[in-house]
Structures are given as structure tokens and as C-alpha cells.
Amino acid sequence: MAFSVPFAEQESHVETWEEQEDEYLARAVYEHMQLNDKVQKETWCPICKQGKLQENRQLIYCSGCELQLSKDNEVNLDILRVRLADAHTEHLDLGCRLKPKFCSETSFGLTALYIVCQGCNTFEVVI
Q: What highest taxon heads this organism's lineage (predicted)?
């Protein structure tokens, strides 16, 4: 005798599982980006994924590529870490499973970091 589950219940179970997976992945990304204060904080460059983001008085920059972001008075590496984690979380919340890319563009003398995904047409300013 075969046991069958109504389609509506199967679909509900799949959605619940996917929602739990999304929440778990978003939390994992956030926790990864928000390292414990007692551990040395390192943030890998979202563009080249090889260099580490560093900062001085004027810039946040990558040790491995040409990324340079002006700090002004409001921005620092901690804020950038939070914004990167938020950007990843927002992308996961859209339900897209593709890996987003990051790029920087300079317009009118200001350089901005963007998250871009072809799969869900995401193009948002990170900082």
C-alpha cells in the first residue's frame, strides 16, 4: 500500500524547507561577515575575492586589486562589512540562488560599490 501526500501539503513542505534554508544561509553569511570582536576582523574583497579590504584615513582599499572607496566621515570598514552582509541577505531574500557579483564604478568623482546579479536583475548600491 503506497502512502501519498496531497500535492498542496508537499508544496507547503517544500516552501517551508526553502524558507528555512534561506534563513539559515542569510544568517551564515551575516555571521561570516560579522566576525567575533575578539578575532581579527578580515574582510575579503568582494570584487577580486583574493585581496583583503583595508583602510587608512582617506580610503577603504583592496590589497589585491584596484578597488578604492573614499571614506569621508560616515564610512569605515565596519560599516562596509555590515553593508556587504546586508546586500547578500537582501539578495538571498529575493529567492535567487545565483552568486552575485560586485563591481565599482566612478561617476562625478565618486566611486560606489554595487552588487549585481543577472539572474534576478539586481543592481544595487552597497556603499
A: Eukaryota
If one counts the domains in the chain, the total is 1
Instruction: Quote the cell numbers at residue 40.
Output: 581579527
Residue 84, H or E segment: helix 77-93
User: Domain containing 75: what range?
Assistant: 7-98
16 in any annotated domain: yes
Q: Which residues pair with 114 in a beta bridge?
A: 103, 125
Closest CA to 114 of 63, 79, 67, 52: 67
**Sheet strands (E) in 1-127:** 53-55, 59-62, 68-70, 101-107, 110-117, 122-125
pLDDT band at 24 (very low <50, low <70, confident <90, very high): confident
Interaxial angle between packed helices 77-93 and 7-33, expressed in degrees from 0 to 180 and rounded to the nearest 10 = 170
